[in-house]
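Morning F.,

Quick status update on the modeling queue. The single chain you submitted on Monday has been processed. Sequence for confirmation:
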Amino acid sequence: MGRPCLMNHMQFLVLAALMRCPMHSYAIWQDVIELTRHRVRVHKSTVQRAVRNLARAGFIQDCSDPYYWINPRHQRRGAVYELSQPGRAKLLQEFKTREKILDMVSLELERQAAAEAKARRQRLRDYLSTV
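Structure tokens below.
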């Protein structure tokens, strides 16, 4: 059995948005935009696809009233989603995994910066020794 894969960023943001309260997909879309501080352009269809995939995976669930209709003329029910228990666990796991990845990247960047600084110092010494 392989290691679990990271979920994509949109799925992660949808789970994070639903952490606060149950929402319909349009409200999730608005919350994702707020979570990213308007730095990420997100199409509604991308959020809807992530919601659909998360619902299939069992990480979110429809908690809406079965008698609530968004558009009675077309007989389409508006779904309100909430984070399921497995979804909460997945969000926590994803957060910890991403935190570890960021720590590793940060350490590598610090190591590279130290190596570059050492190389610059050496080049400066070499230059000064020739002058």
